[in-house]
Amino acid sequence: MNLTPEFKDFAEARDRGLSASEVVELMHKGGLPIAKAVMGYVQIYHVSLMEADEAVGSNAVYREVWEASKRTRERLAETCERLKRYRERRR
Known about the structure:
With 91 residues, this protein is mostly helical. It has six helices and no strands.
């Protein structure tokens, strides 16, 4: 996945030696909402969406929002799984 320009400064911060946690905090200070921070984490660290969600959401700066949205994320995951099974049956 290519790095989009909006995440360039955060990738450079990683390259300068900031820890992943510090980069997440920098994204928060930069005003990124949690969804954007997760997408940035995916691009910067080349991890799965689930890994990025956990890494960003478990950071203290985003934890409250992440915990509040837990049920919504679970429903989304369930819906994606149902869609996947539906598509597999139609093949």
